[in-house]
Specification:
This protein is an alpha+beta fold. It has three domains: about 210 residues, Barwin-like endoglucanases; about 130 residues, D-amino Acid Aminotransferase, Chain A, domain 1 (2-Layer Sandwich); about 80 residues, Alpha-Beta Complex (Cathepsin B, Chain A). It contains twelve helices and 26 strands. The chain has a seven-stranded mixed barrel with strand order 1-5-2-4-3-7-6. Helix 3 crosses helix 12 and helix 7 packs across helix 8. The protein is elongated, with a radius of gyration of 26 Å. The two termini are about 15 Å apart. Bound molecules: adenosine-5'-diphosphate (ADP) and magnesium ion (MG). The site of magnesium ion has 4 residues, from strand 26.
């Protein structure tokens, strides 16, 4: 007998305080007779209740209905659609009925992107809400979270969707989640690490944590032989002599801060003439320097922290502007990686980096390929390479950071048509896909990590994703 059921769950004022009402079919499936004492669990909240099998007129409505008190104790905003699982532990008299998965999105703010995740979650079973580090009440195992509240959570109903569009966002109490999706983008210091440990100690599975800075990631990618052909030569920056040698050999090099992101702190050095080099920092104009100037540049950069040196790749240009590719990869409800979306990014005129933070703009990949001057290959071949490399890179990261749930892969396409793996980013934004993706891509970009959260929650796949 399948252990996980999928059901609508509602609250009803008709049901006596300590009771829950269960449809006959569900009670039979669980082998629980009328009057059984059970425990209900949602995330970190538990409450005892008496099970009543619905009969006659009462059987109309959701297969599982809670009394107001039970719903309140569980901190569940209802109605909703949940996966239900019964467990009976040896030595424990009462079977435990778990409702879930309860998924918390840990963010910095309630504005912006978290609403897109919550919107995508409306079609998934369980409860999804967003919260920040200040919202947890450890003693009561509750969170003052932010989510879609009210009828919009009724599975798939058109009327509910329309209501949701008008906005039923709100703050409210939620149970401590089964799974936490870490979207605290950027560093969060030792306080953040302690906070995550606390969540884990309270039984939350936290995913999508740190994967290290550029050099650590690069070394892990190198551990995967399959990726060697796609990785540009990269190493920690040590001396100006290295820069000179590699700039002479390749024509140019990129210097990147190990802990950098968004294209900041990057410097390009190109061979310019005998004993001369053209130096361009991201967001700045090009300056010409001698070997002496290069030495003081390297000394200055190294004082800022670790830097990497990478061969400059002859990437395709669109009207003279740098152009590269971002692939968003994410895991699904079975833990498998997928390419959720691909986009090209075209840098600002004169910029050495294509990042949106540096003024770059996203465009559909095929369109960028048709605009650029390069030794053309069929677009499908480039797309196939991008997908293959992105998935291989994601699997390589999973090997040392098993809790990774989504990653942003930066790839370059050179003018000879070869694809290169530039870097792997943790906690990727979806801005490119918000701008250019079609509806399906956008939905997947936000929904996949929540499906992966379900995988981690242990609720697994129900027999059929249709309400009982
Ligand atoms: N080796 C390289 N050759 C040519 N362009 C590069 C190279 N490395 C980076 N770039 C450009 O700079 C951008 C930022 O580099 P990246 O390694 O992704 O650092 P960040 O973490 O700051 O995004 C890339 O998206 C690409 O446009
Ligand atoms: Mg990047």
């Amino acid at each position: 007998m399948p252990s996980v059921a999928f059901s609508r769950v509602d609250v009803s004022a008709r049901i006596p305080d300590g009771d829950v009402q269960v449809a006959g079919q569900l009670a039979a499936r669980w082998a629980l007779p009328d009057g059984s004492r059970i425990r209900l669990r949602a995330g970190g909240r538990r409450v005892g209740a008496r099970l009543r099998v619905a009969t006659g007129e009462a059987a109309a409505g959701a297969p599982l209905q809670l009394s107001r008190r039970v719903a309140l104790k569980l901190r569940l905003p209802l109605p909703g659609c949940f996966l239900l699982r019964v467990s009976r532990r040896e030595g424990r008299q009462r079977p435990v009925v778990s409702l879930g998965p309860v998924i918390g999105i840990l963010t910095w703010t309630r504005a912006g992107e978290c609403r897109r995740y919550l919107w995508a979650a409306r079609e998934l079973p369980g409860l999804v809400f967003a919260f920040t580090g200040r919202d947890v009440r450890w003693r009561t195992r509750t969170i003052r979270g932010f989510g879609l509240r009210g009828p919009v959570r009724e599975f798939g109903s058109e009327a509910a969707r329309a209501r949701g569009r008008r906005g039923l966002w709100g703050l409210g109490p939620y149970p401590l989640p089964d799974v936490v999706y870490d979207r605290m983008v950027g560093g969060f210091g030792s306080g953040g690490a302690r906070f995550l440990r606390c969540l884990r100690a309270h039984g939350c599975a936290v995913f999508n944590g740190r994967i290290g800075h550029k050099w650590r990631i690069h070394r892990q990618l190198l551990a995967c032989r399959d990726l060697w052909p796609w990785l540009p030569p990269t190493r920690p920056l040590r001396t100006a002599a290295d820069v000179i040698r590699l700039a002479r050999k390749f024509g140019g090099v990129y210097l990147k801060p190990d802990a950098g992101f968004g294209g900041s702190g990057i410097v390009r050095v190109r061979r310019f003439g005998p004993g001369l080099f053209a130096i361009t920092a991201s967001g700045a104009r090009t300056a010409i320097a001698t070997a002496g100037g290069l030495r003081s540049l390297v000394a200055r950069l190294r004082r800022r922290g670790r830097y990497l040196i990478q061969r400059e790749l002859p990437l395709i240009r669109v009207r003279g502007k740098i152009c590269d590719i971002r692939a968003l990869v994410a895991r699904d409800a079975a833990g498998l990686w997928h390419v959720a979306g691909m986009a090209a990014r075209i840098g600002r005129r004169g910029s050495i980096a294509s990042n949106l933070k540096q003024g770059g703009r996203p465009v559909p990949l095929e369109r960028a390929l048709s605009w650029a001057r390069w030794r053309r290959r069929p677009a499908v071949e480039v797309v196939r390479d991008v997908q293959e490399i992105a998935l291989k890179a994601a699997r390589a990261v999973t090997r040392y950071a098993p809790s990774s749930g989504d990653l942003g892969i930066d790839l370059g396409l050179d003018r000879r048509g070869k694809v290169w793996l530039l870097e792997v980013n943790p906690k990727p934004g979806r801005r490119s896909f918000d701008a250019i993706g079609d509806e399906r891509v956008r939905r997947r970009a936000y929904a996949l990590p929540l499906e992966f959260a379900r995988y981690l929650s242990g609720f697994g796949q129900p027999t059929a994703l249709q309400p009982d």
